[in-house]
Structure formats: structure tokens, C-alpha cells
Amino acid sequence: MSAISYAKRHDFGIKQRFVRRYHSLANRALLTRGNLLLPEFSQLKTDIERVDYFMEILRSANEGKSLDDIFSKNYVRLLVKSDNGKSDHVSRVYLLHGMEAKEKDDYYMALYGLTKAIFHAATKERLALSLLERSDLLFLLGLYKEAIHDVKEALRVSISDCEVIAESKPVGLILSVNRTKYCYTCLKRCHNLLPCQSCAQVGFCSTKCAKRAKEDKRKGDFYPHRHKYDCNGFLPVIFNCLNAKNPKSIGRLNHTAYTCIANTKPRRLLQFICSKGKYKNINLGNIYMLFRPMAQTEGICHKLTSINFALLLYICLVFLLKKRRGHPAFFGIEHVRKGSPPLWNSSDYASVAWLNPYSNKWNSVEGTYGTMMLDFTVASVLLTYCLHLCGYPMDWTYSKSTRFSDKPPANWIAACLLYHLQSINVNAFSFCDIIRCDQVSKFEDLASPIYPAFSLINHSCDPSAILIASTKGVGLLVALKELKAGSEVNIAYYDIYTHRSTEERKEGLKNMFFFECKCVACENGWDDDNSEEKLKCPRCNLGLCFAEEVCLNCKSNLPHEEAEQMFRDFNVFVEYASRAKWTKEEKRRLSSLISKVHSLVSPPSRMATTLRMVLFDMILETLQLWTYESWIANFYVCNYFEESRELREHRSLILE
């Protein structure tokens, strides 16, 4: 097999033998129901009913055997390890691939190949050889410290010595893509990653991060067991549990759903499902999110400078609702969301088990087995079995007639996973790093995290705020315009009105988020064709052509002198913005100009859009996670000069 073929298997779970055999088993079982399958399945109301229905079909088609009885644990583990485990042969293939890319001056692909060679090395000799090859490339790129470290590691391989390199505080994210460039524990960008000792899928920036990846929860660490239940070759299986032909995008969501359960202790999961322990008799009538109300009139850029370049838009969402308990997988989201979650904290499972899964919509979305709901159901049982094989405690012998035990029943866990597969596909956000050099930049996707509090914010195609991921994975909600007391905060789930037509936006939102957009931009047909700027009447806010002297509605005089000064200030600032250093004074200047445009010009406005993009660039530069690399242009140069379209597509699949 070529390096590209191995990369597709190891990075995205394509052609996983265990996944294929599981889906073959599921397909044969589902065929036994014939034409009754979809009508029967569509009648089921809750996730636990759907899981039980599928598992019963599976048992009936296999002489009453459960999934745990059908497959041999040792056989599956050996099969997964055979596909995804460490191998000197695979390491050699990646090594040659990396060396060939290096000869072409394709540094990104070379780093990818050499790091994968290190990940897959099964023997100390192969690991040492791969480390030495990567050190040569790192030296060429000017990463001297990393190159020296690789040389030291190669020399120490023979004596099995270990070194604590650096401390990196872990963040609450699961790295799903670009795993050859970032530490799996702390998400630090690192080009001399140390390979996991038990699998060939991830690496760590230090021995400390490697050790912490599988440790139990410690104080201040909200996301324990980061690599405890997806190691030993199971990560590609988890990534492509739906057996998709191109799982790159949805694979991150599958991984996030899996992690929701993997990072929750079995006892805590049982307590939440059964409303026991700390989830018993808790009624938070008022839930105050982790925010405070924002000052009424202060400019957003001024706020940015007052808290060390960390602009936080504070919201206060208050729920005055009756108490309802239970997991939506068992009682349905309509019942559960009649009340607030028992605990609202991003470190607690309760906050991610309260999001809307839109279960009534997934039954109408086409899938491999007929509907996406059925696809998710089949995948949820596979993910449950992966958890089981990786050591997560569960009871496969549980039936409806048995008594409650200390271990969650397998079908309960599958039902919870089915719920998360649905909800995360609608509620997950994107987390990325920006690689920069001069005027060139590249967005590196890392994961699809959940920010439960931010999932409650409504959409608008003309948003008043934006969500970005800063260092340490903290989600920051940043205002795009001045927000007065009582005004609604909204974000864009999809493209804003200047990027797509109204029809395209509505169709995209309906397909991906299951709602008909009725924001002000869609209701008034705003799009990029609205090119004419209109002066806003200071009394009635009617938008008028600049040629008008007075308002056609209320006969008020229009502020032409102020508008002309605004145009002059706008042209000067936009010309200067690309060179701005974003000092405190420049941020205040931008804030003042944004406020002036919003007060004098009626939306939609190209001026307001331009200033919003300037503000967005400033936010990315001062708050967003980003990395400077002097050789980023090499990525685009090598893309442009790639020999064939097919090779360009393969390169894009792996590196973007």
C-alpha cells in the first residue's frame, strides 16, 4: 500500500476491516425486516427505543447473541491493531514518502510523512532512524531547538531514557484532525511530536503530556482520560463509525460524541440518567451563565483594550422554569427541556445532555440505511462496543427485567451516544489554529468542540457577535458592533448575508440546522447585490438616497455634513487598516468609526461590512489562537505545482 492509502486508513478510518464487518453484520440483520424496517423504525419516539429495536434485530438475526457474543474481543482487538497499530513496514512507507516530499521542497507533506513514520515505528531502531530524518528537516526549516531534541531522542532510544520536555496545560478539546502537527493532550503546535507508545494515531509534545493523556481527573482538569478510551488503534474506527466514503468533516463530530461518554465516569453517567447523587433534588430556577451584563454604551474596541486584549461579551441568560429531570435519550428532548439542566457547567455532563438533537428531523434525512437516524443508531452501537473493548465499564448482559447495577447497561450507553451523534451534528463549533507569515495565512482545523452555553444563542445572517477559540481552547464571544442594554446577542451559524444570496442562506440553514431563517437580513432580502448606501433618517430611521435633502417620511433634515465626514474618515482608515498595529488608540478609532457608520447609514451597508471585516481581522490577530511560521507559503506553492489533479486532491485531504 502507498502512503496515501495508509493515510486514508489511519487518519480518517477509510477501509477499516472491523468497521466493514460490523456494518456488514448490521446490514444483514436489518435486511431481515424487509419493507417493515423503516415504517417500524419511524414510529419509535426515544433514542433508547431505537437502540433496543436495532439491538433486538441484531440478536434475532444471530441466534439470540449480543454484539459482545458475536465478536471475539481478542479477535477484534487484533484486527484493529493489525489495521492501525505500530508497524515497521508502515513506518518505512511513511518515511520514504516524507523523504520524497522533502526532495520536492514540500515541507508540510515531508513533516507529515516523517512524523507518521515516528508514530508507526514498532522497534527502537526504526524510531531512531525516523527521528534522525525528521531532525534534518527541522534543521532545514530553522527549527533548531526541535531538531536538537529529535537528535537527542534518537540517541537515547537505545537506552530507553525518558525526558520531560515542557509543561503544557491541557484544554477541553479533543484533537481530531491535523494530528501530526499538534500535541494530542495540550494542543500545542509541535513539529517534533513524540509518538504514543500504544497506538500510531497521535503524538505528544512531551513525556508529561503523554503520561497525562491517560491519567484520571485531577484538580482543574475538566477533561480527563483524553486518550484512555480511543487508544490501541481505535481512533480511526471511531472517526469513521458511519463507514462514510469521505468522513473528514463528520469524523470530528463522531469523535466529539464518543468523547462525551468516554470523558464521563460510568457512575456519574448512571447518576445523571437515574437522577441520583448530585443530580437529585436540584432545581436551579435561575441559571446565570458564566457572564455578566456588558456596559450599556462603551465601545467594543475600548472594552478590548481594558482587559489585556481579551474582549469578552458578557451575557446573562435567565431561565425561570419548572424542574424536569432525566436524559433526553430516554424521555425525549421535549420533556427534558421543559426545565433547566440540573447543573449548568461546561465541565459537567449535564450541560451537554440538554442540547436539542432535533430527533424529529433526522428521520427525514437520507442515509446509508434509509435515514440518518438509522445510520446514527447503527453507529451508536458500534461506538459503544469500541468503548467496551477499550475498557469502559458496561454491562452487556443487562435486560429490561434485570435489576440496577453499578455498571451502565450497554444499551443505555448506546442510547446516550445516539443522542450525542444527533445533537453534536447541530450544536458543535469549529476550533482552529491560524498559521501566518506576512500576508499569507492558513486555517488549520483541529476539532469540533461543544460550548453548551453558546449553543443557546440565536442565529442571524447579520450577527452582532462572533465566537472564536482563543489559546487554551477557551471560546470567546466577541461583539462585532456596539450592543446596548436589552439588545439581542446573535451569531452566524452559516455564511453572513454578504457571502451568499438569501435563497442560498435559507436553504443551507434548513438543511444543516433544520430551521427557516427569519432574521432581519433574510426577511428583507439582504445580500451582496444590495450595493447602494442609504442615509438613515435621524428621527424615523428610514433609509434614503444620499441625493435627498429631507426625509420623505417625516420631513426631517438629513445629516449630510456628518455623512460626508464619515466617508472621508472611512476611506482614510480602510487604506491604513492593513498596516495598523492595533494600538489602544487605533482600536478606539475603529470603534468610533463603526458606531458612526451604524448611526448614519441604513443597513445593508457595504461600509459596515468592510469595517466588520477589519474588526474581524483585528480580533483574530489579538485574540484567536495563531502561530507564525515563516515557511507557510510553501504549502500553497507545492499545491500549485503538484503534478496532477488527483495528487492535489490527496494532498488537500491529508494536509487541510
UniProtKB/TrEMBL annotation:
Catalytic activity field: L-lysyl-[protein] + S-adenosyl-L-methionine = N(6)-methyl-L-lysyl-[protein] + S-adenosyl-L-homocysteine + H(+)
CDD domains with a match to the protein in the record: SET_SMYD4 (cd10536)
UniProt keyword terms in alphabetical order: Cytoplasm, Membrane, Methyltransferase, Nucleus, S-adenosyl-L-methionine, Transferase, Transmembrane, Transmembrane helix
Keyword Chaperone annotated: no
InterPro entries to which the protein is assigned, alphabetical: SET-MYND_domain_protein (IPR052097), SET_dom_sf (IPR046341), SMYD4_SET (IPR044421), TPR-like_helical_dom_sf (IPR011990)
GO molecular function, one term: methyltransferase activity
Gene Ontology CC entries for this record: cytoplasm; nucleus
Protein name: SET domain-containing protein
GO biological process: methylation
Location(s) in or outside the cell: Cytoplasm; Nucleus
